[in-house]
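Protein modeling request. Please complete all fields; requests missing the sequence field cannot be processed.
Requester role: graduate student
Desired output: 3D structure, token encoding
Chains: 1
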Amino acid sequence: MPGVPSYEEDELLTAIAANDTAAYSHLYDVYYNTLVYFSLSIIQDQHQAEDIATESLLKLWQSPNRFESIGKLRAYLFTLARNASLNYLKHLRVREKRSLEISEQEQHDDNSIASLMAESELMRLIYQEIARLPDNYRQIVELLYLQDMPSADVAAQLDISMENLRQRKARAIKELKTVLLRKGVSSQFLSILFF
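Delivered output (195 residues):
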């Protein structure tokens, strides 16, 4: 940079401690490209490495310290750049992990939604076929399976014997299974549904 003075080591350290802007211009000229290269070797991202180099020099500017030597000043700048680079990598890993979690959750949600849709469609079909059963079978299936009423209570409500209830229940389930199997419902699902 034209017009940026050159410094002897002691003069530069004194100028930095005094927060002399010309000294920071000199530091920028001397260390910026080196800090970019250093950061780039850690994070493999040119744009971010340039930002880290600038931020490291800016941090030095915002809180000037008294350095005993150029070596300590240089070590300080490289430590700033190293820490910022490592923090950037941590941030990337966290962001990638979160992105993966979100993607997995979305896939799970999509699968859950598809599963719920299929289940809802299946239940609609079952309810539809239950409604088509003859009244004496339909009542038994609705009371036993949809209202989860105990068998004794169903028999009492319909004023039939337990044996009659068992016979009607068996016929109703057989009729339902036959119709639903023809419509593509799996026999395993029906066994679970009507145990």
